[in-house]
Amino acid sequence: MIGLVIALGLLQPPLDIDRQTLAQLVDVRRVHVERLSGGETAAQLRDMIISSLQRAKLFVLTENPERADAVLKGSAEDLVFTDTFQSSDGISARASAGTPGSSTSSGSASRRTTASIGFSDREDTRIAERKHEAVAAVRLVNKDGDVIWSTTQESLGSKFKGSSADVADKITKQLQADYERARRLRSGGDANQLPR
Questions:
Q1: CATH code: domain of residue 35
Q2: Could you list the residue range(s) of the whole structural domain that residue 48 is in?
Q3: Do residues 35 and 4 lie in contact, with contact meaning Cβ atoms separated by under 8 Å?
Q4: Running DSSP on this structure, what letter comes out for residue 1?
Q5: Do 58 and 175 contact (CB within 8 A), yes or no?
Q6: What are the phi and psi torsion angles at 77 (to 5°)?
């Protein structure tokens, strides 16, 4: 029954919907990046996303949402937390020796010998490391209100950049890759030939 409905064009299979949505990316020329929800750090992440998109030269970025073909919306946060590692190692040794006492029948002489040795060593380690973790979930929405692209990215930072800058770059790289797939699809190529 579903095959008949698809054949009649009443229901599109998910693959066709994905292709149609992806193909809309090629028509986008101007993008407005809306304020992101998520607290104070969301404003900084928004600025980093704008900067990263501007460097990519994929779209014209505008502060005027009415001039935009699509709006980038979403939420973002850069959390600061302390990662704590605690361990405890110890070693303990004890020894004891003794000889039974002896006594005479008159009860006047008694001898007792005992010895004891103890050793203990304990080492406690506590390491507290301050870390940043940034996360952003964004979507590109066209003028009709349809979501034409979305991604969620997170980072603990990289060797040469902080977590927020890394998330902004990951968003831009994902958008560039999907835009290239959309262009390939539009020109009649196989969109799946490019890595996602």
A1: 3.30.160
A2: 17-81+133-188
A3: no
A4: -
A5: yes
A6: -160, 145
